[in-house]
Amino acid sequence: MSDIKIYSFDKCPYAQRTRMALIEKGLDFELIEIDVYNKPEWFHEISPYGKVPVIVHEGKTIFESAIINEYLDERYPEVALMPTDLYERARARIWMDYCSNYYLPACTRLLRDHKNEEAQEQNLKRIKERLLYIEKECFEANKDGVFWMGNKLTLVDLHYAPFFERFGAYEHLFDARWPDECVKIRLWWDAMQERQSYLETFLPTESHISTYSEMMQRIAS
Ligand SMILES: N[C@@H](CCC(=O)N[C@@H](CS)C(=O)NCC(=O)O)C(=O)O
Fold it and tell me: For residue 218, what pLDDT is reported?
């Protein structure tokens, strides 16, 4: 029996990050699916924030996807998913922070403002700027390799992948577009879609379209 339990929800991009890390690291785990819209009473005793993902490892509870992933990487260093060089580790964390505080909020505004044409125009412009920033500052600056940090997949790739998977839904629902200049981001995304960790965790675009449509209805009511 595995000594890692992960409480997850198949539609949750954050839980997907952690499932991808477990798979990339080749770790056994027990997957416990939680419907976050209808959480069982006992889940509140497991998850301090009432959210997924949560892992229980050797009797200890760890939550927040980015923190879980770094914990797993430090605890099981055999398949390392962070650079070894200290400056490169800091850069990896800066890119994960960019996802959480710049790229992702730009995307989630699309859901919030879906009835506000003027705000949506700004939101689409902001997403375009952020994608161009990533293309230039990350991918064009890399000397080699298709991944975020160069030639080796790291936690940074797993941090972003679930949200790029959902871009097809942004295209369908909000007419978002990747700028043509984002050639290297495309190469990265092609490489990510071949990873076993992605193949085992992704959901089709139609599923994301219906999840976001339901979320917008919930926001409106
Ligand atoms: N910052 C958290 C976000 C996790 C999160 O928002 N999970 C959502 C599902 S995608 C959840 O569990 N929501 C239930 C709730 O807020 O009640 C992480 O990175 O783990």
Answer: 83
12 is an active site residue: yes
pTM confidence score: 0.96
Helices (H), the chain: 13-24, 43-46, 65-75, 86-98, 104-112, 117-134, 155-165, 167-174, 183-192, 196-199, 205-220
- Angstrom distance (rounded) from CA 177 to CA 27: 36
Asked if the model's pLDDT at residue 27 lies above 90, the reply is yes
Residue 160 half-sphere exposure toward CB, CA atoms < 13 A: 26
Domains of the chain, CATH where assigned:
4-75 (3.40.30.10), 86-220 (1.20.1050.10)
Lookup: tokens for 178: 């990747």
| 1 pLDDT above the threshold of 70 | no
Pocket of ligand 1 from Cβ distances under 6 Å: 9, 12, 14, 36, 50-53, 64-66
Q: Ligand 1 centroid to 49 CA: how many Å?
A: 8
Q: What is the pLDDT of residue 77?
A: 97
Q: Report d(CA 214, CA 190) in Å as an integer.
A: 29
